[in-house]
Amino acid sequence: MRHRIAVVGGGPAGLTFARVLHRHGYPVAVLERDPGPDARPPGGSLDLHEELGQLALDKAGLLTDFQALSRPEGQAMRILDPTGTVLRDWRPRSDERANPEIDRGQLRDLLLGGLDVRWGRKVTQVMPSTGQGPVVHFADGQQETFDLVVGADGAWSRVRPAVSSVTPHYTGVTSVETSLDDVDTRHPDLARLIGDGALAVYGVNRSLVAQRNSGGHVKVYATFRAPSDWHTELDLADVEATRSGLLALFDGWAASVLDLLGHGTAFVHRPCYVLPVSHTWAHVAGVTLLGDAAHLMPPLGAGANLAMLDGAELAESVAVGPEDLDEAVRAFEERMWARANRWAAMTTAGLERLVSPDPAEAVALFDQVQPS
């Protein structure tokens, strides 16, 4: 029996879900609001963990392709204090494959394959089943009925209200993202400072993190504690004004570190919102959630990994699990909640240590999780 299945959202969670179902011979419609795969920048690099994201890719039959694209050297991590003193300089062994990096765009293209992605289909609401199945409402006024609708549409999910009234809350921590292009050619001193992977500098209630992507591209994140409306008097589209404001916030830090902001090309505000650590819901027939839509947590490397494993496991539950679709989804939800609750608790505690009045807490956290 083949069910009518749709997943809302064409990110890592939705595409992994669709790809694993596709491998098992199940059709699934991917409903994505963007008009095409290149409609907006895909975001920074991801480290995919062996037991999470890589496991999901293995279930999708894509692990070998991932290994060919990934950058094991990107696992390197260098930690400095605000004076520029190197505190840690960890480099992976040549055979280290625990958390290799891959650009989000490369991962997206890997997962897309021949999937049925319906681009430009913005979902506004999902109404739970009234007998024929849940109904998806689109921005253009159309609607479509399915047997299962999976919300993989991120923090501000339009599917979540069908199962839960909970909304994300602000953590008190925000980031401003900027980028460096052709870093090895245009900024060789910064390239050497960053190394092959990531560079982190921790101060009192703030940090600067630089992360290498492929092609000489670097993402830089200035993270700090601030009220949610801290930027109301600052026009983030004004590059010079934003740069000056951030440099003032990190005043007194080493010039070599501040160059990460001084050469930024544009600035994007990324406040950190989360769902409650123990977020669950009473099962609703025909509707469920994956990834950030289900368990939004601090961005400390777990989110995309969990989202992909969510997608792969739900797909397997549907394809080879109990014959009853609702029973398969219920069983998946219980497993997902237990795993997500553990990670949400860890990442929430981790955020408190990484953006802390005592910068030594961040270094100690790294020492706890550093690969052997």
Rounded mean pLDDT is: 95
- Report the sheet with the most strands, covering strand number, pairing sense and barrel closure: 7 strands, mixed
Number of strands: 17
User: What is the terminal separation in angstroms?
Assistant: 47 Å
| Gyration radius over CA | 21 Å
Description:
By secondary structure, the chain is of the alpha/beta class. The protein contains twelve helices and 17 strands. The strands form four sheets. It has a seven-stranded mixed beta sheet with strand order 5-4-13-14-15-12-16, with helices on both faces. Strands 7-2-1-11-17 form a five-stranded parallel beta sheet. A hairpin with a 5-residue loop joins β4 and β5. α1 (12-23) packs parallel to α4, α2 (53-59) runs parallel beside α10 and α10 runs antiparallel to α11. It is globular, with a radius of gyration of 21 Å.
